[in-house]
Amino acid sequence: MKFKPLFNKEIKRPIVIAGPCSAETEEQVMETAKALVKQKVDIFRSGIWKPRTRPNSFEGVGTKGLRWLRNVKEETGLKTTTEVANAKHVYETLKFGIDVLWIGARTTVNPFSVQEIADALEGVDVPVLIKNPINPDLNLWIGAIERIYKAGIRRIGVVHRGFSSFGDIKYRNTPMWQIPIELMRRFPELTFICDNSHICGSREILQSVAQKAMDLNFHGIMTEVHPDPDNAWSDAKQQITPKTFEQLVKGLVLRKATSDDKDYLENIEDMRHQIDQIDNDLLHLLGKRMQIADNIGLYKKKKNISILQPTRWNEILEHAAKEGAKKGLSKEFISVILKAIHQESINHQEKVMNQNNSQGSR
Ligand code: PEP
Ligand code: MN
Q1: Ligand 1 mutation target, pool 32, 45, 48, 83, most atoms within 8 A of CB
Q2: Which residue in 84, 149, 191, 307 has the most C-beta neighbors within 10 A?
Q3: Using CA atoms, how far apart are residues 320 and 303, in angstroms rounded to an integer?
Q4: Contact 72, 80 (CB under 8 A)
C-alpha cells in the first residue's frame, strides 16, 4: 500500500486535532472552536453520532450537529472531523463538507461496518482516520486500513486510542505501545495520531501520554477539549479546557525523526555498534543455554522425569527478579523475557524427549 499525507501540503508536526468528545449545543461547539482557533490547532473534532457502551447515555445530537460543524469551518477556518460508523454517516458528512472522517474503535472491530463505510467512500477523495479496534488485534486494524485503501482512499491516518482491558487502573484503555510501533514498522508512510484522551480516561496523565507519542515519532495528537469539562455530556472525566490544552501543547518537547549532524551520526553509530555486539553475545549465550536444555531433556527422558518443574521455575524467576532489580531492570521485563526463555527451553526438551517415539520401541 502507498499512502499519502492527510493534506496535500504536509502540516508541520505535531498535527493537532482537538475539540469536544460530543457536540452538545451549537453554542458549546462554537465556543470551543473559537478558543481553539487561537491556538495552533489543525483540525476541530466533535462526535455527532456517539457509540456509547451502555444505552441511556447521551448518544449524540445527530445530523443537526453537522450544520454546527459547517458553521465552525465557515467562521473560524478550522478543518473539521467527525466519527462515521455506517454508510448514511458517510453520505451526510460529505454533504456537509466535513474535511476528515474518522472510524471509531467500536467500528474498526467489525469488518461488515468497515466494508460498508469503504463502499460508501468509493470514488471520493477525503482523508480518513482509522482508530485501533478496541481489542489488541493488529490484523483487524490492518484489515480496516486495507478495506478503506481498496476503496481508493490514499490519505489515511491511524489513531492509537488504547485497548480495552479488565482491571487496568492506570489507563482507561491500555496503550500497549508495541502494537502501533509494529504498525509503524510495517507502514511507515501512514500518519500516526495518538488519542491521549481515550487512552487516559482522566486528566492527570494526558500530558505524559502525549509526550510519549511524540517520543515515539507519532505525527500528532487528538485530544478532547470542552469549555466546561466537568459538565460535559460524555467523557467528562477526561476532557480539559482550551486553556489547559494550550499548556499541554506548549509543554510538548518535539523530537526530530533523525539528524544529519556529523557528531550525532558518529556517536550514534558507535553506540549502535556496542548494542549490536551485546545482541550477538546474548544470542550466543541463549544458544548455549538451549544446548544445555537439550542435555537436560535427554537426561530427564532416561530417568523418566517430567519436563516442567514448578519449584525450580519459581526459584529461577525470583532470583532473576532480584538480580534484575539490582541492574535497573523492571520486574515486568524480567518476567516477560524469562517466560520466553523458559518456553523455548521446554520446546527444546520436548523435542529431544519425543524424538524417537514415533519410530516405536525396538
Ligand atoms: C471518541 O473519539 O469520542 C470515541 C468515541 O472514541 P473511541 O472510538 O476511541 O472510543
Ligand atoms: Mn470521547
Answers
A1: 83
A2: 84
A3: 28
A4: yes
